[in-house]
Amino acid sequence: MLTSKLILITFTWVLALLVSISLRAAGIIHPNTFPINHLLVWALVFAPSLLLLSYFLVKKSFSIKPSV
What we know:
With 68 residues, the protein is mainly α. It has helices spanning 2-29, 38-62. The protein contains two helices and no strands.
């Protein structure tokens, strides 16, 4: 159990590091400001949690409850 958690934590940190380096490189290559699409920002902020919520609700509705 500890190994799977350690792998998940390591994977998350490495992915965050790669995203950070990519954004830094993109900022160096394109130093000018760009127009912000507010819909895209809101989607990036709330889409992951909404997708997880819908996944858990669908999973809960299709789960088979044992009869006692």
